[in-house]
Specification:
The protein is mainly alpha-helical and 148 residues long. The chain folds into two domains: 85 residues, no CATH class; 61 residues. Helices cover 75% and strands 0% of the residues. Helix 2 packs antiparallel against helix 3. The protein starts with a helix and ends in a 14-residue tail after the last helix. The model has no long low-confidence stretch (mean pLDDT 86).
Length: 148
């Protein structure tokens, strides 16, 4: 609750002082909101009945709006300070949200991010399989022979 309140106050201050990239925050919020609705529609159980479908759309719209508002708030709370302290970290981010996805810097950072995510997932998976061995438990079914 303290972090949420601090984020709201910081975002409100940055909006009042006209600091931050409002267009970038709106793009990020809109994208996340639309993606949330699409993901909800793809994973929902659909029926031909009117009221369950309307309820589904209402719930998806509310959840999407909450995520979009939260994303806007976090972006507006953090972006001005990050831009001031570490401007080099926002170069490819700014290019990506402005639509320049074919920029080499954006591509490089996307590849590095995907590789880091894959390495983290693999490490987590390996740790999950090897942890029982370290604790003297029998290995799980998927424990690779010889560890890593």
């Amino acid at each position: 609750m303290i972090i949420f309140t601090g984020g709201v106050l910081l975002a409100k201050r940055n909006l009042r002082l006209d600091r931050g990239d409002r267009a970038g925050a709106a793009r990020v919020a809109l994208t996340l909101g639309v993606l949330e609705i699409v993901a909800g529609l793809l994973t929902a159980h659909h029926t031909w009945e009117l009221f369950p479908t309307m309820r589904l759309m209402l719930v998806l719209s509310a959840k999407s709006a909450l995520i979009a508002v939260g994303a806007y708030m976090v972006y507006m709370a953090l972006e001005p300070d990050v831009r001031r302290r570490w401007p080099q970290t926002l170069v490819s981010w700014s290019r990506a949200i402005s639509g320049r996805l074919s920029d080499p810097l954006v591509g490089r950072d996307l590849l590095v991010g995907c590789r880091a995510r894959r390495a983290a997932a693999e490490s987590s998976s390996q740790f999950g399989h090897l942890a029982p061995l370290w604790l003297g438990q029998p290995p799980t079914l998927a424990t690779p022979p010889g560890g890593f």
